[in-house]
Amino acid sequence: MRTMKSWCLTIRIKKNDNFNGKRTHRLILEVLKKSNISGATAWTGVEGYGKRGKSNFQIEGISVNMPLIIEAIDDLQKIESALPEIKRIVGDNGLVTLSEVDVI
After folding, report:
1. What's 18's domain CATH number?
2. Which CA distances in Å does 10 have to 62, 63, 74, 98?
3. Is the pTM of this model over 0.85?
4. How many angstroms separate the first and last alpha carbons of the chain?
5. pLDDT tens, 69-104?
6. Which residue of 9, 62, 74, 87 lies most exposed, with the fewest beta carbons within 10 A?
7. Cβ(36)–Cβ(72) under 8 Å?
8. Contact partners, residue 64, CB within 8 Å, separation at least 6
9. Of all helices (H) and strands (E), which one includes residue 86?
10. pLDDT by residue (tens digit) across 40-71?
């Protein structure tokens, strides 16, 4: 089986996060698209915690500040070109990681 080396950019934020009046995850997806990243997916989680406390989803109390993960896989050069803008948007309100992956 042949595999190809690629890079996975993972961004962990909260669904309700904003930057300059816009939802953070939408801005990040716009940056990735402008950087010609092949594709990206935003995933919402049910519950989590981190340095900014707990993230959760509750129907009864209508608390919807769920954890959100954005993943994009592409060439390192494309991802690195988007990183300064992504880090500016995320700031200290999330976690940005980069790891090498094998694409099958």
Report:
1. 3.30.70.120
2. 27, 25, 12, 6
3. no
4. 8
5. 999 999 999 999 999 999 999 999 999 999 999 999
6. 62
7. no
8. 15, 16, 57, 58
9. helix 76-90
10. 999 987 666 666 666 655 566 555 678 899 99
Q: How far is CA 88 from the centre of its chain?
A: 13
Are 104 and 92 within 8 A, CB to CB?
no
Please state, in angstroms and rounded to a whole number, the distance separating the CA atoms of residues 90 and 97: 12
Q: Which domain holds residue 36?
A: 4-103
Indicate the pairing of strand 67-74 with strand 4-14: antiparallel
Distance CA 86, CA 96 (A): 9
Q: Which two tokens stand for residue 92?
A: 């200290």
CA–CA distances in Å: residue 29 to residues 4, 21, 24, 34, 62: 24, 16, 9, 9, 26
The total number of structural domains that make up the chain: 1
Instruction: Determine the pLDDT at residue 29.
Output: 97
Is there a contact between 90 and 24 (Cβ–Cβ < 8 Å)? yes
